[in-house]
Amino acid sequence: MGSSWQSVATWQRDEGLGEGQNQVLHAAAIAGYDICRGVRAWRIWVTLGRSDVMSRYRRTRLGQFWITATLGLLLVGIGIVYSSLFKQPLATFLPYIAINFVFWNLMVSLVNEGCQSFIEAERYMKQIDVPYSAYVVRVIFRNGFVFAHNLVILPIVFVIYSVPISPLAPLSILGLVLLALNGLWVGLLLGTLAARFRDLPQLIQNLMQIGFFITPIMFRPENLDEQVREVLRWNPLASILAVVRDPLLDKLPTFHDYALVVGISILGFAIALPFYGHFRRRIVYWI
Fold this sequence. Notes:
Blueprint: H1 2-14, H2 23-40, H3 42-56, H4 65-85, H5 90-115, H6 122-125, H7 133-150, H8 153-160, H9 171-196, H10 200-214, H11 226-232, H12 236-245, H13 255-279, H14 283-286
């Protein structure tokens, strides 16, 4: 471990990036190095992520597919009721909300559980030498694992309602990559803050609940008034959802959506990296 950090310090000295000269870049370099080491420790975060999911449903018949079954029943109930309430054909409304709920569950889990990434890893952080960023990647992998199970719902819905496979569908993979990248910086930033301020996870959960109602999950943006639609265009949650959802519905995401998501990613890492790099060594004392 000591030699690893020494190599970072040597690189910074060679480049003339001493702490006194540029503390922000110094902290960001440390964070970047920690992330690289964390990603390389894939055996650890894969093992921990799988163990997290398995332990929740140990000794059950369906195992982790209980999550999928629960979501499927929820979609059927909501689809029948709200398609009638909104005067929408069930054949188009249910596939729309099915895609939204599958991706929204991934988004909200990455944010909410990202806050807990260091807190829930307390016993590991105090006993073994692992890059702290590996615990954030653990959260991303764990939720990706659950997402893969929930994804089974979409082919079933598409077959039942004869939804064709769009040639734009591969673009949804790009949206998923952007979503995962945002999950990384969110976990680093909020995970560090939540280790110090334990009220933060509750605050974030409440904000995400509010976000659910102002994000086009249960409704379509085109059904809103123009003024409301213009305001909601700047909802980052709506843009992230659009870049993963729209290609599956044979709709090309707008340049505005991609620009907003990429801009948030860049800004998020610009804030999270130096912040995490600066406070990284204090996390273990806070938890």
